[in-house]
Amino acid sequence: MIVFGIAMMIYANIIQSSLSVKKIRAQAILNQMLQADESSANNTSTTFTVGDLSIEQTIKSYNNENNLTEIDLTAYDPNGKELITLHKVIINKNE
Amino acid sequence: MLKASALYMVIIIALVIGILCSSLIVTAYFYRLQYQKTFRHEQLQNNVASAVNILLGGTDTSYLAPKTFILFNQDADSVSTQRIFWGTIDIGVAKAMIQQDMLYKVFTLANTIDSGKWAVVYLDDNSRPLSLSGATSIVGDTYLSPAGVDQAYVNNQAYTGDKRLIIGVKHNSEKTLPPLSADRLQKLQQLIQQNRKNDQGLLNSDSLSNSFLLPTKIINLGRTVNTLAHIKLSGNIILFSDTILTLDSTVQLNNVIVIAKSITVNSGFHGVCQLFAHDTIGVQQRCRFDYPSALAIMRFDPASILKKGAKISLYNNVSFNGCIFTYEQQATTLPSLIHIGQKATVKGVVYSQGYVEFEDKAEIDGSVFTDRFLYQTSFTRYENYVVNTIINEKLLSPYYLTSTLFPIATKKKKILQWLESN
């Protein structure tokens, strides 16, 4: 029984510390959004939801270069816990 | 009362559970390791793409050693960018590093075309009209002398082309050509006159390739007249010759720069290269140069100008993709000549500070900037005559990118070609 108990504890620990499907899903969504942002000319700082994820998009000038824009995308779960953040420098299409 | 074998049973069950647990731990470990690797790879891809965008969109256009910096002031987002001067175009090197992992991309970058400065023909205002004869077609906006354009009867041929003569808007040209970029010319001068320290023994093998991540390999052939044959040169290599260099059809050049006094390219050659000569470049029949190639005569030393006129000749059926130009720092009594042979096709830009001469059925899919056109028969020489030639901007790819050297380039840079990546 003790051995079985230890085994169960290990199992629970592994399950708990294993990768969250939500995180992987969030990463895929953010990557897709980065690609879309790169081809768009009208990127603005905004917050929106995709499914149960809340996504915050921040747009700012990169290194004071007029031609370059930094995009920061952060995904939060329904409890407001940060899942993942992606950054990318893109070329400003408006220039 | 327990059986004596119960102990064995317990041990075996414990062993089985132990193995199961261990395998679970190991599986989870490898899964996590793989995920971290994939995540790192995606992060590296984003970072290297950011570095590429910084090279394309940034204001820093210096050609320095690799510059390493942190992208977003966070851990694990180091990138390195480098711009390498490579003749008429630039090479961009972008690297992203996280721990031991590194992603790199090497690419050529060039500039988009400024439609406001673009001209299918820019002919200096030399107060004489442009005369067209035979089946000549000029499609696109032109800059011509106020004397305009006329039909002409040359060599028993009347003009048989479109009645509009030029299918496009006609503007008045200036007395001189729009100048080539002084910055780029200065860099080209440094490239041509650089220290030619030879990397010994490079031509002993039949193939040589050098990455743009490594220092440039210099091959100096010196003063011996050389014919290069049965060799493949690729990448970050500059070939120097102080005299006449012949490139045989068996030579394969891929993005290599060749600098010589005179260059002859034998019939049947096929490659991508930039050839810079001081006196002449002769491209024999049926050669094919892929984009982005360059042929150029460049003269920075005034003492040599009077000796011989600069000449670039493309003989019959040559197919050339890229730019052809002549540059002389001081005006000369013997103007330079770019000769486009019968059925030869140039896709790109031709820029001559002297003459451009066409033979029958020559075709320019792009743009010609010249002081004068020339047409010669066995007995007569006609200036500013274009006979049986097609000059059509519509036949040039809309994705064509040009060098910053030419006056038609915008400041906007784009990736011309991916060269290396991992």
- The topology string of helices and strands of chain A comes to HHEEEE
Strand content of chain B: over 45%
Q: Find the biggest chain interface.
A: A-B, 29 and 29 residues
Assembly state (oligomeric): heterodimer
Poorly predicted parts of chain A: none
Count of DSSP helices of chain B? 2
Counting DSSP E segments of at least 2 residues, the number of strands of chain A comes to: 4
Helix content of chain A: 25-40%
Major sheet summary line of chain B: 6 strands, parallel, barrel
Q: Helix- and strand-based class of chain A?
A: alpha+beta
How many structural domains can be distinguished in the coordinates of chain B? Answer: 2
Known CATH architecture of chain A? Single Sheet
CATH class of chain A: Mainly Beta
Radius of gyration of chain B: 29 Å
Q: Taking strands numbered 1, 2, ... along the chain, how are they ordered across the largest sheet of chain A?
A: 1-2-3-4
In which range does the helix fraction of chain B lie? Answer: 10-25%
Q: Report the major sheet of chain A.
A: 4 strands, antiparallel
Outline the low-pLDDT stretches of chain B.
none
Could you tell me the number of beta strands of chain B? 29
The chain-level structural class of chain B is mainly beta
Number of helices of chain A: 2
